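Why does residue order matter? Because the sequence determines the fold. Keep that principle in mind as you read this record.
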Amino acid sequence: MGGAGWARGEARVADDSDFETLKQLLSSEDGWNLEYERDGVKVWAEDAAHGALRTVKVVAEFDDVSPDALYDVLHDPEYRSVWDTHMLAAEDAGHINVNNDVGYYAMSCPAPLKNRDFVLQRSWLDTGQEKMILNHSVYHKDYPPRKGFVRAVSLLTGFVVRSRQGAGSWLGYVSRSDPRGALPAWLVNRVTAQLAPRLVHQLHAAARRYPGWKALTDSPYFKPWRNPEQVPSYRISIEDCIDPDAPPPPSEPKPNTSKVKLEVPQHKEVESHSIEDLGDISSEFSVEVEEEFDHTTDPTKKRGKFYKLVKSMKNRRKSVQVAKSADNLLDGKPPEEKPEKKKPFKFHRRFSLSRGRED
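Structure:
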C-alpha cells in the first residue's frame, strides 16, 4: 500500500493505472484501522509495521457542496492562499501537458519545528462521473532546497471527488508523506491521522464560500484545470525534473552459476602463548604440581615445553633491558646498576592423564 506506479522522485505523465491505484486504495478494506469517525468523516490508517510511515485515507460526504466546487477549491492556486492558513508560498514551475504540472509549495510548522517545502508534480483527470487529483514529490532544477526549510517528500497524495446520492458530494483522500528532519515515524503517523480530518473540514468550509469568491475576481471563468485551452503555452521539459545528484537505481545482482571450489579452512597452530594462557592449551591437563626449582640444577634435565617457553621469555626480558640501557647511554644517563637477586623459581609441571606421561 501507499504508492502509485511512480518510482520515487520520477516525473512523467500520469496514466490510467496511476488513478486506478488511487481508487483501489480508497475502496480496499483489508489492512486498514479505523481511527476517527465523527460528523460524517472517517479516517483510516494503514496497518504497517512498527516504526514505518503509514498511509492515511479519509472519506467524507457533504450535502451542501457540489463536486465542481470541491474540485475547483483543490485546484485554484489563488484561492488556496485564502483558505490554507499554513501556506507560505506557492509557485507554478510550468506544465508538462494539459493534465500534469509541477509547482513549489512552502508551509509553516508550529515551533520548534522548521518549516517544510515541497516540489510536486500534480496530475488530474475528470471523467465526468468522478474527478481525481494526484501529486508526488519530484526534482526541478529551478527549485533546489532553500535555507530555513526542510525539503519534505510526498510519496502519494490523492483526491477523488464524486457526486453523492441525492445532493452534495463525496470526497476520498489518501496521503503518504515523509516530513523529513528528525521526526520519528510514530509521531508523524499520529500527527497525520489527527490533521487529516482537520484538512477535510477546512476544505468543506472553503468549498461553500468558493462560488461567491470566484464570481468577484477579475477572472471568474479562468479555470485551466477544466479548460485545456486556457493552459499556458509554455511547457517544461521532463529533463528539467531529473536530479543529476540522485543515485542510480540499484541493479539486480546476476546469479552466480559458476562452480565454486569449496575451501576447507586449515587449522592454524598457535605460535606462542603467554604464561597465563598455558592452562588453556589442552583440556587434558587436569593435574598441576608445584615444586621449587633451583637455577643451579643440571640444565640437561630441563627439556619440557614449559621450560623452553619460560627461558625464551627470560631472554626476551634481558634483551629489552639491554635496549633500555643503550637508550640511557645515548641520553647521557648512567645506567642504573641493580644487584641481581636470584629467587627460587616456581615451576608448574602439568601431567597428561589421558596420555599417562609428562609434557
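Residues 269-295, 350-359 have pLDDT under 50 and may be disordered.
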